[in-house]
């Protein structure tokens, strides 16, 4: 089994690199990739430890980069990257997470006020820029029952859906414009190429109603190497849909849990919600095109 999508404390995960490797070993995974957001610093952390004593399988250096398609915030995955080169490149394109969170907070605050959302008076003073603005505002919004009529039931119950459905959709009143902070698709994918990696599209159906338009836009306009076809939240129909796309387009296949630790308490390494199993064979077609962490 493999898991090629997970996060550590080097970005927005709650578990250290050491803990993540131990969990991967407990699950008897054969291939893994740590794919922190906009940084490959996890691999510099691994250099400092006896990682072979923690995990016996093979590690593919990876990263998850923020970008946009159709003016909608999305992500791409990079596999087999030169992580040192990637860290040099990424720092020239992406601002520090704390700085970005603060900018996003200010913009979303203004949107909420304009949209008529009720917030506590001291709301703006209690924000910690080390946390995502989407999660913070979701907690603040659902404090007031009067706001319920302004959100969908799904967004009311989930900060993740709130982000995807309201903050990331250009047609919604709480859409937060981030063009000045997030690189376009070409720029982001070129970072992966410059670092010697392969470009994959992750969790496409997490973009909900925008999933199919985004997928078509990317396939029609950009070169990618593969698609994440095994993912925690995918239905069987969605799983088969992207597998067929890969077959038709001669694209590679990847898969992962998107483990974040306590941020996503129901999602475990290797198995997602508990029954996901990603076979080793899916990476056979592209295993010789990448370099492993040593």
Please explain how this structure is put together.
This protein has about 290 residues and is an alpha/beta fold. About 35% of the residues lie in helices and about 15% in strands. It has helices at about 15-25, 40-45, 85-95, 95-115, 135-140, 155, 160-165, 185-195, 210-220, 235-250, and strands at about 1-5, 30, 60, 60-70, 70-80, 200, 225-230, 250-255. The protein has a five-stranded mixed sheet. Helix 5 crosses helix 7 (about 160-165). It starts with a strand and ends in a 38-residue tail after the last strand. The model has no long low-confidence stretch (mean pLDDT about 95).
How would you state the average pLDDT, rounded?
Answer: 95
Question: Helix amount, in percent?
Answer: 25-40%
| Strands, total number | 8
The whole-angstrom Rg is: 19 Å
Alpha-carbon distance between the termini?
Answer: 20 Å
Order of helices and strands: EHEHEEEHHHHHHEHEHE
Outline of this structure?
It contains ten helices and eight strands.
Keywords:
294 residues; alpha/beta; 13% strand; globular
Give the helix/strand layout.
Elements lengths: L1 E2 L13 H10 L4 E2 L8 H7 L10 E2 L2 E8 L2 E8 L3 H11 L3 H19 L17 H9 L11 H5 L1 H9 L17 H10 L3 E4 L9 H11 L4 E6 L4 H14 L2 E5 L38
Parallel strand pairs: 1-2, 2-3, 6-7, 7-8
Antiparallel strand pairs: 4-5, 5-6
Helix pairs in contact: 5-7
